[in-house]
Amino acid sequence: MFDNAIKIYRANKGTKVSKVKFSNIKWTMIKCPIQDNGSDCGYYVLRYMKEILLCSEEGVIPHEYFSTYRLEKYSTELIDEVKQEWCRYVLENIITNK
User: Fold this and answer.
1) Among residues 19, 52, 48, 46, which one has the least CA distance to residue 33?
2) Residues near 33 by Cβ (< 8 Å), separated by ≥ 6?
3) Integer angstrom CA distances of residue 62 from 2, 55, 67, 93, 98
4) pLDDT confidence of residue 79
5) Most CB atoms within 10 A, among 23, 38, 50, 60?
6) Is the pLDDT of residue 21 over 70?
7) Short-list 11, 83, 22, 17, CA closest to 50
8) Which helix (DSSP H) or strand (DSSP E) does residue 2 occupy?
9) Residue 59's CB: how many other CB atoms inside 10 A?
10) Residue 24 gets which letter from DSSP?
C-alpha cells in the first residue's frame, strides 16, 4: 500500500526514480499500541504521534524510540486526554474562527 502511495506521489510530482532505487526503500516494522475496538484507531494514531513529538529533542526523534515497545494498549485516560485536546483545538481554532 505504501509503495503504491509513493509511486502515485512521485507520478503526480513528476519525479522520476528508477526501479532499482525504488526497490531500495527499507521499511522498518515498529511496535505500537493497538486498539481493541473499531472506533479508537484515529485517537491511537494521535496519541502515538504526540508521544513521538514529546520525546523528540529539537525535532529529532531518537532512533531507539521505535525499537522500544512501551504499551500494548493505551488506557482510557490516555485516549480521553487526546480526545479532549482534539476537541479543544477544533473549538478554539476552527469553529470559533469562522
Assistant:
1) 48
2) 44, 47, 48, 70, 71, 72, 73, 74
3) 23, 8, 10, 31, 39
4) 93
5) 50
6) no
7) 83
8) helix 2-13
9) 6
10) T
The amino acid occupying position 62 is: P
State pLDDT tens for residues 33-83.
Answer: 889 998 999 999 999 888 888 888 777 777 777 776 677 889 999 999 999
User: How many Å is the Cα radius of gyration of the chain?
Assistant: 18
For the record, the C-alpha cell of 64 comes out as: 531507539
> In whole angstroms, what is the distance from residue 53 CA to residue 51 CA?
5
Which DSSP string do the residues of 49-88 spell out, in sequence order?
HHHHHHH-BTTB--GGGTT----SS--HHHHHHHHHHHHH
Q: What phi and psi, each to the nearest 5 degrees, are found at residue 35?
A: -70, 155
Rounded CA gap, 61 and 71, in Å?
A: 18
Q: What is the pLDDT of residue 45?
A: 92
Sign of the CA dihedral 73, 1, 11, 42?
Answer: negative
